[in-house]
Amino acid sequence: MTSFVSILAVFGLGGPELLLILAVVLLLFGAKKLPELAKGLGRSVKEFKKASVEDDEDSTPKPAATVATETKKIEPVRTHGSN
Q1: How many domains does the chain have?
Q2: Do residues 25 and 34 touch, judged by C-beta distance below 8 A?
Q3: Is position 16 within any domain?
Q4: pLDDT tens-place values along the chain, 83 residues long
Q5: Largest CB tally within 10 Å, which of 25, 40, 57, 83?
C-alpha cells in the first residue's frame, strides 16, 4: 500500500484529492459495481505481472548445453553437378 501512496505522491495527489476521486467514481459506477471493477483491475495487474515474469524468463540466456542440443546441423544442398 505504501508504494501506491508514494506513486500518488509523485502526481501530487493527497488525501482530499483521493477522497474526491473516490466519491466521483462511486457516483459514476455505483456501490454495486465497485467490487467488480476492483476485481477486474486486480486480474489485469495479475496478468500483467505474469506476462512480465514470463518475458524475463524468455530473455535470460540459456546454458551452453541447452543451446548445443537445440541447434541443428545444416546439410549442404547437393545439386546434379556436385559429387
Answers
A1: 1
A2: yes
A3: yes
A4: 566 666 666 678 788 888 898 889 889 888 888 888 889 989 999 999 888 888 777 666 656 555 555 556 677 777 776 55
A5: 25
